[in-house]
Amino acid sequence: MTENPTRQARSGGRGARRAMRAAPDFEMLPALKRALPECEPMTPEQIARIDDASMLILDEVGVVFRDDIALEDWRKAGADVRGERVHLDRGLVRELISSIPSSWTYRARNMLLQTEQSITEIAMACGCRSTSHFSKVFRSFFGKSTVTHRNTLG
């Protein structure tokens, strides 16, 4: 008999298998090469071509809006509204783009946190005509509902 037999630790086990599965195996795809060409910035002429094509589509093809409120807003802005299709001429698009402010404040978010106004009052103050539309836009922008935002941060 041997004195003090030494036990060798087992290699492997659940942790080792998990680590092996999680580790990247670069030999699996040895032929993977970047085949896409480098992308150079567009020239002013290329930008002008894209701009012309997009303006042509907005003017001749138009954009379909199925919301009556949006259609009325486009009429008031001076767009050519035919049924659900809105046609925008270059001048109107340029005018609307030039009216975009260079910066803005998240007014709705701030009002939810800093006032006790109801969500309906905040929606109306922000220019929305319906609370459901306001809530949908708020959720898509901030990733949470107006009520959740007010309760978690307020």
From TrEMBL:
Q: Which Gene3D superfamilies match?
A: Trimethylamine methyltransferase-like
Record keywords: Methyltransferase, Transcription, Transcription regulation, Transferase
Disordered: annotated segments: 1-20
GO MF annotations for this entry? methyltransferase activity
Question: HTH araC/xylS-type domain spans which residues?
Answer: 107-152
InterPro entries in the cross-refs: Homeodomain-like_sf (IPR009057), HTH_AraC (IPR018060), MttB-like_sf (IPR038601), MTTB_MeTrfase (IPR010426)
Q: Which domain of life is it from?
A: Bacteria
The question of whether rRNA-binding is a record keyword is answered with: no
GO annotation terms (biological process):
methylation
The family note in this entry says: Belongs to the trimethylamine methyltransferase family.
Q: What is this protein called?
A: Trimethylamine methyltransferase family protein
Protein source organism? Albidovulum marisflavi
